[in-house]
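Hey, can you fold this one?
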Amino acid sequence: MPQRPQPVNFIGNYAQGVGPITPLSGTSITLANNQKGKYIRTTSGSAVTLTVPKNSDVSIPVEAVFNVEQAGAGQVTFTAASGVTIHSAGGKVATAAQYAVATIIKVDTDTWTLCGNLA
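Sure. Predicted structure:
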């Protein structure tokens, strides 16, 4: 029997887990609690390093979701702080091209899963 699509939950004007768009123009970003559930849009023309912090430094809750778009020419590379593990298919940790979108999800205390349009 085919499964029915699940309903989308809305919080204010945003679909749950997507949130408002947060443009960031810098080349160095560290994930923070005030960014969870938001759509992070990097606009830099140079390479961007996005650091996933250790839980003891920034206590982001398990199940937190961050959506990241490479809107500028600068490729976004996800970097694990010391003691943090990022899992992804094929070990890919960077956006594939301009307008690529990646999602990173905290699945355990210092363990994250990265998925999306990666290179």
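Confidence is low (pLDDT under 50) at residues 7-15. Let me know if you want another pass with a different chain boundary.
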